[in-house]
Every structure is written in C-alpha cells, then in structure tokens.
Write a structure and sequence with these properties.
Serine Threonine Protein Phosphatase 5, Tetratricopeptide repeat; mainly alpha; Arc Repressor Mutant, subunit A
C-alpha cells in the first residue's frame, strides 16, 4: 500500500504544480497496480477521481466523466468523502442547472464528513456555478466561505484562485473580453484554442510547442482570469481565429 500511496502523492504533486499529463500517468499507474494487487478501492485510493481531475485540466471531459461514473457505481464509493469528491467532479461536465444540484449534494456530503479542504473546493465550484446562473448574492456568500476555509487549510493556490466579492453585481460579473487584455500573446492563443474545444495535445501541435508548455500557459491564464477550468473561459475566445488570437 505504501507504493500506491507514493504514486498518488506524486500525482497530486504534479497536479498542484501545473503538470496534469504527468499527474494522469501517475494516477493511471496507481489504478493498474491496485487492480493487480486486488486492492482497487476508492477509499483510501480514489485514483479514478484523481485521474478525472487531471483529464479535465487536459480538456478531455468525456474520459473524465467515464471515470467518475465508474467510481460512483462502486459499492465502496458510498462513503461521504469519496461520494462528495466524486459528485464535485461529476458536476464539472454537467449542464449548468444540474451542475448546481450536484455541487449542493457534494457540499452536503463533505460537510457531514468534515473534510475542510475538499469542502472548500466544492464550495468554490458551487460559487462559480451560481455566478454563471446569475445568482450573484448567493454566489458571493458561498465564495467567501470557500475562501475562508481555504485559508484555514493553508491551501494557498485555491485561496488565490477564489475571488470573494461584495454585493450581487460584482459577484455575478462574468469574465469579459476586456479581461483577456491581461494575457500575453502566447497565453491568448492557447486560451482561444482551449475555449474552442481543442485538447492540450492538439493545441501543442497547432502552436509547435510541447504539451507541458500549453499546460503552463493555461495555468497562467486561469490565474489571471480568476477561473478554475477551460469551461469558464470568456465566450468571445471561441470565435477568434488562430490569426486573431494574440494580436
């Protein structure tokens, strides 16, 4: 079990440092090893949701959702923490209204279990989902709670990503086209292709760069725009041509 814990820890490190492809490889290897040893249980080794998190960052939501569904179907996934994390990741590929429902359920599960870090992540995603649905006041309250929890847990990257705001008007403010002015030319080109549905590998081929370079650019884009995933990228990026992006 120590080897499995090491693989997972290494994957989580790669994920935290903006290397989702390397993280994915570690998580999948952990899953294969657990299967060989007949110890494939989501608690204490939730490799499926770990891998799903990496896949979402890589722009492969279909594969992520398949892993999440597999984990939800396991009898051992009935525990509050595993179920809460799984519901949070399932929400990432759901329709806006369904996303809110799933995240509310995730928050309930994680609050009951007492995992403050995962609760902060679920609350942050719920705040973002509510903003997209136009529920600015509620979104602001929940986002502030997520921000406080992230601080209590010492989760600096999560705390920096969350932008607590005051009042319904600011809380409901989406990422606007003018916000992309903060991006460098390279970041804007990568963001435009990501918003148009290209995977990191496809973007790398189009721009003649490595996938790790794409990952680094997207990490910077998310931080500058205050978002968590490519689904939250400004909609105007989807209509930009390859030549327009970065100019």
């Amino acid at each position: 079990m120590h080897a499995l814990a090491f693989l997972r820890a290494r994957g989580r490190y790669h994920l935290a440092t903006g290397r989702p492809q390397a993280a994915l490889e570690e998580f999948l290897e952990a899953g294969r090893t657990a299967a060989r040893w007949a110890t494939d249980q989501p608690e204490p080794l939730p490799w499926r949701t770990d891998a799903a998190e990496a896949l979402l960052l890589l722009g492969r939501p279909g594969e992520a959702q398949a892993l999440v569904a597999d984990q939800l179907a396991l009898p051992a996934a009935a525990g509050a923490r595993v179920r809460g994390v799984t519901l949070r990741l399932s929400a990432a590929t759901a329709e806006p209204r369904r996303r809110v429902e799933l995240l509310v359920s995730a928050v309930d599960e994680l609050r009951d279990y007492g995992d403050r870090l995962e609760l902060a992540r679920a609350l942050a995603d719920l705040g973002s989902a509510l903003r997209l649905n136009g529920e600015g006041t509620r979104a602001g309250t929940i986002t502030r709670r997520a921000w406080q929890l992230a601080g209590d847990c010492g989760a600096v990257p999560l705390r920096e990503r969350i932008r607590p705001v005051d009042g319904p008007e600011r809380a409901a403010r989406p990422v606007r086209s003018r916000d992309t002015a903060r991006l460098s030319g390279s970041e804007e080109r990568v963001a435009a292709l990501a918003a148009q549905g290209h995977t990191n590998r496809e973007i790398a081929v189009k721009l003649f760069v490595s996938p790790s370079t794409v990952e680094r650019h997207l990490t910077c884009v998310y931080r500058k725009l205050g978002i968590a995933r490519r689904q939250d990228l400004p909609s105007d990026l989807r209509t930009r041509t390859f030549e327009q992006a970065g100019h």
